[in-house]
Amino acid sequence: MKAIGKTKKGPGIEVFDIAEPEVGPEDVLVRVRASAICGTDLHYYHWDGYAERHNPGFPRVLGHEFSGDVVKVGDNVKTLKVGDRIAGETHIPCKVCYLCNTGRMHICKNMKIFGVDTLYGSFAPYTVLPEITAVKIPDSITYEEGALLEPFGVALHAICEANIGPGDVVVITGCGPIGLFAQQLAKISGASMVISTDTKEYRLNLSKRIGVDETINVLNVDPVSRVRELTDGKGADVVIELSGANVAVKQALDMAALNGKVVFVGTTQKPTEIDTTNQILYKELKVSGITGRIMFDTWYRSIKLVQNKIVDLTQVMTHKFALDDAPKAFELLDKGEAGKVLFIP
Predict the structure, then answer these.
(1) What pLDDT score was predicted for residue 269?
(2) Which of 33, 47, 206, 235 is the most exposed place for a label (fewest CB within 10 A)?
(3) CATH code, residues 155-289
């Protein structure tokens, strides 16, 4: 079958042929109907340090945000059957460690990541994954929406962690797809003002389309000063950092109001030096970090929000490609000239 991924180290993306995956006793084989590019996939496109650290071998199929149909189940699979429509949870837990057994399976001590630590990801007509990570989705959710439930869940996890109150001023730093999802969620959570920041006008325009109250291009405007100006000097009640830029980490702490909340989601490529005394302690900030989705509370909430049309995931979709067009799709996303890019195998 045709697939997108890597057959060797180095920058770029490849389209190549690979055998269909075999199904283990606790696995399901899925016919992939839609799969989206994630920022994590760009690490392999550039072949940086992350790609070096998470390299299970070659050839390997990339992709981990997807939906599809179960076409075969392993002998020990009990909760899924052929014909079920599913979306893929990325985190593969060990199911036996302390964290797995105390409700924090998504940060399992022995975590493996589908499409990162596995040879088969979702940029192909077929993929294989453990039963526990295949989440049933209803017929009322399209395959394209289903492919976006995984990144949408990250945004929802962040919004739940932020505990936005009615009337809060909320800043979302970063207008990538997860940032755009978070902006939608902040609005329906009761924020009186949602402010977004980014360096790309294309993404800021997507943010405007979603309906944020103010967009800030940080290349032209100091975001801390602008947020202070918009809030009569008070600062934001909630800041959710999704850009992964080191400077944005510092700005998030600085633009938060006294006794405000800051939630970190974006992953920086190098450590960030912060002044804990003046940026956190004296301001009595509530600071936390989140990763992934809570398994499976976030999934149930995400499915209900999409199924009942409370949020519109399609607003973030901007491009669809066939597998053969992978180089063009990755180049477009790498330039910051796309929202969510999907492959339709």
Answers:
(1) 87
(2) 47
(3) 3.40.50.720
